[in-house]
Specification:
Structural class: alpha/beta
CATH superfamily of the largest domain: Ribonuclease Z/Hydroxyacylglutathione hydrolase-like
CATH class of the largest domain: Alpha Beta
Strand content: 15-25%
Largest sheet: 7 strands, mixed
Distance between the termini: 77 Å
CATH architecture of the largest domain: 4-Layer Sandwich
Number of helices: 24
Radius of gyration: 29 Å
CATH topology of the largest domain: Metallo-beta-lactamase, Chain A
Strand order of the largest sheet: 15-14-12-10-9-8-23
Length: 752
């Protein structure tokens, strides 16, 4: 009788000798998803919008009827995802059954898949309920600046059309999807047990690790894991599936259960676990590959990771081709590809096998990490060697502690104690690694051709190592350095001046032809955490982690909030760099005495704490770097101004034949002073005070004589900026008007 076991099949796969046809086939298979990603991503980036604008203005009260598909709760907030949508702008009566049950016949019915409802209060609702809910529509916005999170694309990929704010349920028919609702209730109960037995930040991590629920994950912890290259351990992946599914399959086989029966029972358990976690992308991939493993066991065939990876990936893309633009999908498959590639390479000493797998996985995922996050964690290779082994203990003890904690809090706490210590060690390691010089390499957003060359070098390197049947450290290091160097190669820069869309505020970034960055202002009164969500992502997208000089026109919050945020989170590392983000080398402020200097004093205190020098500038100050010249035209030393706006530091920036006048919130006597100091027309005028009614007089506009006028203001701002009278003055003066609220980020480029 022929005896089959999962151990024997695994050993057959691992015993295949290097240099054989199968290994070469594996490498070819690994290349296919990567090449396909290049093609689809290039096409995707060039796509034209297919959807016509929605027929409702933002803020319109809508009444939506739909079936509850997902329910998410966080503290006092509740979010519901509806599918099978019907929409009306009219009131719905209790007797209007046709509206409640029938599908919408409006002109946008065919384009609406799902809607996100943010409830005004938490309400009793279950998955499968057919509800009618009232709320105010809000549309997702695309990225307004390079490097920003694109909410519109993110929700489009999830088939969510728009959001309804302040939702109130008007009617509920009470139907329930028993299976999905049971999974949700079990997940909510598990979350409650973890939150009862563990500290808040640790419970958030374990909810992500065991349940795929990241809504309670502490932002600082998420950032720590991401910056150090171990964010993948927070995803439901092969580790969970192998620990749960393969352990059960092996246990059943040891009890002499047949292959088919053991596979069926294991498959049912893993499918239920996937439903319990909500089937994130990484879980779908792991479950599909596990089912292929079970199929191989039942059929008596060898389980081949590259084939399983390719089959599962193509299957997922067949139903959702847009997954090729999602970081989770690409990182999940590239990591598995790294493990498969490492197994095909020549064997090393047993003590170095884990390092080999970690290095190859890092190399396979590096371009994707750089593409989506603009930086690479250099020490992530070594940190993974410490963290990944501990994850087996964390997952195992986490499951045991969770199950035990349902019945006994004391027993659950006892079993979760190792998890507590391992997580605290992981947090400490991440924090310390972040302080080591060179922990983060800011690559910027790599071009597709760089990624293509990188992977080509990687494949050639792998083929070379397989052919010579040993790992040549010198040649391997050369290949890795060459590939990674091309990935992060920035080349030469064109001189640029970029007006960022910061909402109601100002933020200007100047990049010299040698890549040095100068910032002018950087604040907003309408966007919270401007540095985290706008300024830092933009700078890292450009491959920049240091600002040579940050210039402040004046101290209103809509001009300095982003800089203040950076200073408040600043931590100077051993090399003098900010380990928490962007490094600022120096700050320039106007040499001006103010009646209320509270914000100025606060900024000076923060700068002193961060050991950043601050210099005062006034009319006559001149600055130069890389062929760029900056002349300060305002304020005048010891001159009294009627308002802080009138004393705004105003700069005349010139590079080659290009010139721009940056005015802050200039007005009144300050505007007159600048007009008198101007000796020639400029190419670009930054319109003062976001286009207020009393800024930029006709005489001033005539003296500046700019070809383009840039207005930095927020869409639908409460100040009415830009004012119609100001727009009329600009038109009469012959300016081309550019607005960040309408045009988004605005860039002027001087090519070499």
């Amino acid at each position: 009788m022929k005896v089959r076991s999962w151990e024997s099949h695994r050993s057959v796969c691992n015993s295949q000798k290097k240099g054989c046809i199968l290994k070469k086939r594996k490498l070819c298979v690994l290349c296919l998803p990567i090449l396909l990603w290049f093609l689809v991503t290039a096409i995707w980036e060039q796509r034209e919008p297919e959807r016509a604008p929605w027929p409702w203005q933002e803020g319109t009260r809508l009444e939506v009827t739909g079936t509850v598909d997902q329910i998410h709760t966080k503290e006092k907030n509740q979010t519901i995802i509806l599918k099978n949508i019907s929409i009306s702008t009219n009131d719905v009566s209790d007797t209007d059954e046709d509206h409640f049950t029938n599908s919408m016949s409006a002109n946008s019915a065919d384009t609406i898949s799902e809607i996100k409802i943010q409830m005004q209060h938490q309400e009793t609702v279950q998955i499968g309920n057919r509800i009618c809910v009232s709320g105010y529509c809000q549309y997702f916005t695309g990225a307004q600046n390079e490097g920003e999170f694109d909410a519109e694309q993110y929700y489009t990929l999830q088939k969510i059309s728009f959001c309804l704010k302040k939702g109130i349920i008007l009617k509920n028919n009470g139907t329930v999807d028993i299976i999905k609702e049971t999974c949700r209730m079990l997940r909510e109960h598990a979350k409650m047990v973890l939150e009862k037995l563990m500290e808040k930040e640790e419970a958030g991590v374990m909810e992500a690790v065991l349940l795929g629920e990241k809504s309670n994950l502490d932002p600082e912890i998420r950032s720590l894991y991401q910056k150090n290259g171990i964010i993948h351990v927070l995803a439901i992946s092969g580790l969970h599936i192998s620990m749960i599914g393969m352990s059960l399959f092996h246990f059943l086989r040891k009890r002499r259960l047949g292959f088919g029966s053991a596979a069926f029972i294991s498959g049912i358990l893993i499918w239920f676990y996937g439903m319990l976690t909500g089937f994130p992308v990484s879980a779908i991939r792991a479950v599909m590959m596990f089912f292929l493993f079970l199929g191989a066991q039942v059929l008596g065939r060898t389980y081949d990771i590259p084939i399983a990876m390719t089959v599962s990936g193509v299957s997922m893309l067949f139903f959702q081709p847009e997954l090729l633009t999602q970081s989770g999908f690409l990182l999940s498959y590239s990591a598995v590809a790294g493990v498969a590639a490492a197994s095909a390479l020549p064997e090393t000493r047993p003590s170095l096998e884990a390092l080999k797998v970690s290095v190859v996985s890092w190399l396979m995922t590096a371009p994707i990490v750089a593409w989506f996050y603009y930086q690479l964690p250099i020490y992530g290779i070594l940190l993974n060697l410490l963290v990944i082994p501990s994850m087996s203990v964390i997952v195992l003890m986490g499951i045991l502690g969770l199950l035990t904690g349902i019945f006994s809090a004391a027993a659950g706490t006892f079993l979760l104690a190792p998890v507590h210590y391992l997580l605290q060690i992981t947090f400490a390691l991440c924090r310390q690694c972040g302080r080591i010089p060179g922990a983060q390499w800011v690559t910027g957003h790599p071009a597709l051709w760089k990624i293509g060359i990188y992977y080509l070098i990687l494949v050639l390197l792998f083929e070379f190592l397989i052919k010579i049947e040993k790992i040549d450290l010198i040649k391997t290091a050369f290949g890795i350095i060459l590939g990674v160097g091309i990935l992060g190669y920035r080349g030469s820069w064109d001189w640029t001046m970029t007006f960022l869309n910061v909402g109601q505020g100002d933020g200007i970034c100047i990049q010299t032809e040698k890549g040095n960055i100068w910032m002018m202002d950087g604040g907003s009164s309408t966007r919270d955490r401007l540095a985290q969500y706008c300024l830092e992502p933009y700078l890292k997208y450009q491959g920049v982690r240091q600002v040579e000089c940050w210039m402040i026109s004046h101290f209103d919050q809509d001009h300095i909030s982003g800089l203040m945020e950076i200073l408040e989170n600043y931590e100077r590392g051993p090399a003098g760099k900010n380990v928490n983000g962007i490094t600022v080398k120096q700050i320039l402020i106007p040499d001006l005495t103010l009646e209320d200097e509270k914000e100025k004093r606060h900024m000076l205190e923060l700068a002193a704490h961060c050991q950043i020098p601050v210099y005062q500038c006034a009319k006559g100050t001149e600055l130069e770097q890389d062929g760029m010249y900056i002349r300060v035209l305002n304020p005048v030393v010891q001159k009294h101004y009627e308002s802080p706006n009138a004393g705004s530091m105003t700069l005349l920036v010139s590079f080659q034949d290009f010139s721009a006048l940056l005015t802050g919130d200039l007005e009144g006597s300050g505007e007159q002073q600048v007009a008198e100091a101007l000796e020639e027309n400029v190419d670009v005028l930054k319109v003062a005070h976001h286009g207020s009614r009393n800024s930029s007089s006709e005489d001033f506009l005539e003296k500046a004589g700019g070809a383009s006028a840039v207005i930095s203001c927020g869409a639908g701002n409460s100040y009415g900026h830009p004012h119609s009278e100001l727009l009329d003055r600009l038109k009469r003066a012959g300016y081309k008007i550019l607005r960040t609220d309408q045009d988004g980020m605005i860039r002027f480029k001087v090519k070499k």
